[in-house]
Amino acid sequence: MSSTRTTLPLVHSGKIRELYALPDDQLLLLATDNVSAYDRVLPTPIPGKGAVLTQLTTWWLSQLGDVMPTHLVSSDVPADVAGRALVVEKLDMIPVECVVRGYLAGSGWKEYSESGTVAGLALPEGLRRGERLERPIFTPAAKAPQGSHDENITFAQLVDLVGEQAALELRRASLRLYVRAERVARERGLVLVDTKFEFGRRADGTLVLADEVLTPDSSRYWAADSYAPGTEMPSLDKQQLRDWITNDSGWNPDSGQPAPDLPDEVVSKLSQTYADTYERLTGAQVLPSAPLEAPDEAPAEELADATEETQPDAVPAPEDAQPATEEPVEQSTFIVDVMLREDIPDAQGAAITETLKGLGYEGLSVRQGKRFEVDVDGELTEERIDQLRKATEELLVNIEVEDYEISLVGNYDEEPEHDHDHHDHDHFGHDHEQHDHEHGDHEHGDQESVTAEDLPPADDTASTGGQGE
Ligand code: Q0N
After folding, report:
1. Domain count, the chain
2. Helices (H), 331-469
3. Same domain for 299 and 355
4. Ligand 1 pocket residue status of 131, Cβ below 6 Å
5. Ligand 1 centroid to residue 192 C-alpha, Å
């Protein structure tokens, strides 16, 4: 009897995923049920894992297909690998792991707590473990010269490896994908902490998203409802495994002894966690898949490598620190200022006016407002601005009593060097006639420095009230 895994030529075997050659420059990307921990593959497979991760990749690719082209051709695969394999375009792969981190976790937190940097990028002081970064950061990794472990590389090293144009293209694509995915995950109750993308090129040079995408093997997810920065938060999948290994297995991963078989309850809990993650994200049940039969002949061992432990946890090289705020990503920051209309009594503003009078400040009349910072991802079209205006009216403003103004203070679509000539400080105030505040331009800095320091503290009522001058 001939199985897919014995009849097709094996292109790449990583013990967790396998790639087989198909006709017409296509590949079969197959996910086994194997799981890795502490840099090795454990002896006990997790039933359903390969199917869940394959179908999660398909679902994410469908969510991201409008961000950039993907390598997915079809899910129509031979029956013996149904549900756990994809037909993909054969690409010329770029030998770099494109890691994006939106929260401080794992090796990123470790480095930050020691040096204030993540992969050499300087971050603001005082961030806590698990904290969401103001902007996601791109921390690429590549194979170390010797040894199979991936190591963080600086953006300059990436430029040396792939050229400046390609490096910028990879960073931009990775950040755009992450920004989209993080929002989608958050809407579904999951925190996408960090992830690793791989890209390849078509013969015509087009950059294409490849590999597994946003699976628990390539990403770290937390449950949003137990998100608590400052504490150690377990990643959804691997934690149970690590807990069992460290607390109950009696096995020391450093001992050189082979890993022990996993007990049934650990296996079924892990199966369940993978299925739960899938259902939470997609709202659908995992489709059943054929159990995976071992190939008659073992895959060529020399093809195996250690790329399968894909949690972005490579050892950092924190040399030349560079400001993290220079990451270009197609995202714009707006400030929405909301004030009570002139004809609506402002009790809090009046109270502040009275307080100031009590302190000896005569002749000042304070009205209180509120300010929102809104990040808009995606290309900045008229429709997007319209959408922001609508959202503002729907969510931020009671138009019966409040008035608002929207200012664009940062646009991250372009390279930082030549982004000053357009968009900055454009004014998108609405057209409600009588109650226009004539606020004028906000004195925000350049886009590189548009961060919280441009905003008054939340309780800084006097400065907010004073801006209508
Ligand atoms: C491929 N890997 C995983 C890059 C390779 N669509 C594709 N076309 C050609 N090759 C591959 C794919 C996919 N997916 C993917 N190997 C080959 C291993 N990575 C490790 C990092 O460098």
Report:
1. 2
2. 347-358, 382-391, 461-465
3. no
4. no
5. 23
The answer, yes or no, to whether any atom of ligand 1 lies below 6 A from the CB of 304, is no
Residue 381: domain span: 331-442
Q: Domain boundary residue among 276, 292, 324?
A: 324
Gap between the Cα atoms of 86 and 181, Å rounded: 21
CA of 133 to the centre of ligand 1 (A): 29
Ligand 1 closest atom vs CA 12: 16
Q: Are 407 and 423 in contact (CB under 8 A)?
A: no
For residue 455, being part of any structural domain is answered with no
Indicate the helix (H) or strand (E) that contains 20.
strand 17-22
Q: Examine the domain organization and report whether 66 and 196 are in the same domain.
A: yes
Say if residue 277's pLDDT is above 80: yes
What pLDDT, on a 0 to 100 scale, did the predictor assign at position 147?
59
Residues 403-413, mean pLDDT to the nearest whole number: 74
Reply yes or no on whether the pLDDT at 367 is more than 60.
yes
306 lies in the same domain as 379: no
Scanning the structure block, which residue is given the tokens 């198909």? 22
- What's the pLDDT at 48? 95
- C-alpha separations of 124 from 189, 309, 325, 452 in Å: 27, 30, 10, 11
Considering the domain boundaries, does residue 103 fall inside one? yes
Q: Is the pTM of this model over 0.85?
A: no
Answer whether residue 397 is part of any domain.
yes
Task: Give pLDDT tens digits for 447-460.
Answer: 322 222 222 233 33
Mean pLDDT of all residues in 414-427: 35
H helices present in 188-326, as ranges: 238-243, 264-282
CATH assignment at residue 76 = 3.30.470.20
pLDDT tens-place string over residues 89-109: 999 999 999 999 999 999 999
Of the listed ranges 4-13, 98-107, 191-200, 233-242, the least confidently predicted one is 233-242
Question: In the sheet that 369-377 helps form, which strands lie side by side, from edge to edge?
Answer: 369-377, 331-340, 402-411
Question: pLDDT at position 198, please?
Answer: 98
| Single-letter amino acid, residue 248 | D
243: Cβ contacts below 8 Å, ≥ 6 apart: 234
Report the b/e string of 238-259 with b at 16+ CB within 10 A: bebbeebbeeebeeeeeeeeeb
DSSP letter string over 23-45?
TTTEEEEEE-S--EETTEE-SS-
Ligand 1 centroid distance, CA of 310 (Å): 13
What is the dihedral angle through the alpha carbons of 71, 73, 75, 79, rounded to the nearest 10 degrees?
Answer: -110
